[in-house]
């Protein structure tokens, strides 16, 4: 239990560093090392990336626990570890789109714990965001790089359009079915 609390504390400190990036063109990121990566994009901040939001930490902890379980118990991943890159979309569809683009273009350099740059080719998918409009913006770009997006909160019926959003999978039903 004590080790888990230390783990959470270190993660919180890393996330809190996001609040001190006001002068940077893009927010910082947090990485859980792996051989392949899932990008997790939520609004960790809002109001122009200035104000910290607290409840997305629960999502981060859920992702961390899921990755620990999968990496420890999956015989199909022998020799591979799945990691995560947490990106802050600042609760903005436009910012989410921009941060995704600059990551894939190499402008936003994301590094693992050794300082090595993480190549976007090692990303196997995205998870996020917390709204349909943010999800759709990012999904439209991810279509161009043929990357899957799991949308845990997006309920817009537009996301059911498999032509427009062929790489999106939802975990909640469309508004048209609720």
Automatic annotation (TrEMBL):
Report how it sits in the membrane: Multi-pass membrane protein
**Top-level lineage group:** Eukaryota
The family database entries (InterPro entries) matched by this protein are listed as: ANF_lig-bd_rcpt, GPCR_3, mGluR, Peripla_BP_I
Q: Where does this chain mainly localize?
A: membrane
**Localisation per UniProt entry:** Membrane
Q: Which UniProt keywords apply?
A: Glycoprotein, Membrane, Receptor, Transmembrane, Transmembrane helix
- Keyword hit for Membrane: yes
The answer to keyword Transmembrane applying to this record is yes
Q: Can you name one GO molecular function term for this protein?
A: G protein-coupled receptor activity
Gene Ontology cellular-component terms listed: membrane
Identification of the protein by name:
Uncharacterized protein
Species whose genome carries this gene: Owenia fusiformis (Polychaete worm)
